[in-house]
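Convert to structure. Protein one:
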Amino acid sequence: MLLAEETRDIGPKMPLVLRSCGRSIGTLTVSRLATDVVSDDVVNCAIGRGKEKHLQSQQVIEHWIRLYNCLIGASYRVASWPCSDSSEGIVDVLYRDGRGPLIALEHTRIEIQPWETQAAGSMNGFGPPGIRQIGRTLEQGLRKLSAANADKRILLLESDSVAGSIEDQYARVRDEASVRSLRGGVDEIWGVLTAVLETENVIFTNRIDPGDDDERTLCSLNLITGEFWRLRPDSIPF
């Protein structure tokens, strides 16, 4: 059903006809100049969002390296940022501790929807849509890391949601053939939770794979005070 129709001029004798039905726009007739201007604005906006995401990713990586250093008692620093575009197929960062081993790290964000945490059963591929997306995201990150020239390769999975857990989502796709075949080229997979990063300046991390029961890696860091917390083995009920 036609909900609205508006006609106005953009440039001499160049009508713009908008027919909106729900969320869809039926017809747009504009001058070539106006189209170019709109296209440039869209491209510039997309570039701006891409740069903002890249900077946010770099900040999370730097915060995580700081937390990782606290956990293992090291002083790793960023050696280089090879990748400025996540679609290039190059890992995000290389870092090392003095003259120690070179570590390649790929950071990716996992979008966890509340309803996905309750989803059961299996559909085509990885299962429900959210789980399939996580599977594809894992494949991309694992593939980039497998090709990296480094002494150690780490995949860092970020979530900014308290709904569900990265561990649970990863457990649902790790045994898929496509993920399992690429997993051999990566040394470790870590989760980083940034849900309270903006409000409390605290990040949490935990090694997801391999997950050794005798080595507790769940920990957090207050980025302002430097307060480091680690889950003690004797605090876990058996």
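Protein two, convert as well:
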Amino acid sequence: MQQINVRGVVLEHNLDEVVEALRVVPRVVAFEMRNVVGRSFGRWNRAMKASPTKVGRELAKRGAFTYKLSPSDAEYKQRRNESLDRVWGRFRSESQVVLAHEFGAHVRPKAGKYLTVPVGKYRKIPRAERSKQGLAPEQLSPIVRRRRGQSVIGLGVPTGQTLRSGEPKLDLVYVLRRSVTLKATLGMLSTWDRLQPDRDEILAEAVGRIAAAVFALRSRRAT
């Protein structure tokens, strides 16, 4: 038996067991913590896809909510990572729209005088798909339409029908706005906070597996 002095407390232990524990336990802890992070982000991602807000569900369908884990899946499967300082998870999104809906924003056009805001059934069509269908703003004609009791300026697409005046009937695709105020309605952070009991459960399971691994190590040394 060897004596180990830890801040004035003398511990007696088999040195081989200490060396083995220092080699194995950090690796077990690192991979269990990676599992905790991955499962936590996974549940959050599923919760966002089932978001109670319409904008949340639409953004989820477009793949706006993604996350990255370290170590990678390949490293995780091959059990290469042995350090906790490489275990982390990060929400990733290149979309400023996501941040605007999460925290709220006052949006102004980057170029030109107006924002083109899709309305009605056209809101559900992704921007790239609208362009393919000939519904990009530059492909449409100006239109003035009564909407919600007010006259609005917008852009419309011909419906194939003709008005009494002989002009083509247009279906309103975009309304033109000088600015738009978005409310903070997405709820990414509040959803994460709501899932705290789930993360506690996941962590408790991981701690149990770590304890079982340490116990198994001691049992092997004892036989």
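Strands lie at 2-6, 9-13, 66-70, 88-92, 105-107, 115-118, 141-147, 150-162, 168-177, 180-182. Helices lie at 15-49, 54-61, 73-78, 96-103, 127-132, 188-194, 196-222.
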